[in-house]
From TrEMBL:
A single MF term (Gene Ontology): carboxymethylenebutenolidase activity
A Pfam family recorded for this sequence: DLH
Gene: clcD_14
Protein name: Carboxymethylenebutenolidase
Top-rank EC class of the record's enzyme: hydrolase
The keyword Transferase appears for this protein: no
Amino acid sequence: MPGYYARPKGVANPPVVLVAMEIFGVHEYIRDVTRRLAKLGAFAVAPDYYFRKGVDLTKITDIPQLLPIVNAKPDAELLSDLDSTVAWAKSQGGDTGRLGIIGFCRGGRTVWEYAAQSTALKAGVAFYGPPVDPPNPLWPKSPTQLAPEMKAPVLGLYGEADTGIPVKDVEALKAALAGAGKTAEFRIYPGAPHGFHADYRASYRKEAAEDGWNQMQAWFKKYKVLG
């Protein structure tokens, strides 16, 4: 499985942070996030888990063309690919005892899914990951349905003006997690649209993006992913 990684120079056994991509592939924005995490001391890895489709997602900008490709990825295969990425990072000297995951959009959904599956994960940060799924037999449970199964604390960062993720859906996920006694926190940024952290798009909102990045660092430090 191809991917992109960055690690801090001269640091032995750095913590491992998985970077779950948007639907646009491991493009420059995701690579930049990966490098930024390495500057914080992490061995950051962005696996290209859609590679089996034989399509370079970074070359496609039309969302209706992308969706059939990414929606055909079974959750079971995706989670297995993440486990394989963790195993590879460990073989390269990463400290998987300090394992984190960060994701954006569809990758934010992946954060919630992996937090419900992995017993090794210490913490996750989901940037605008959809709490509710469209009907898809390859995705047995949405993040909200998985609330009782969460095994790691997750920070959810959402935009109040996200037209694809209504605040009521975020509140329903929050309530489901609280009802199940799970550890999670949420930030909903006033006026921020979907993709507010994506600095290559018109949706970018500097204040929300910078605060979200700072919240991510604090969350990972709290749960001993970052030092």
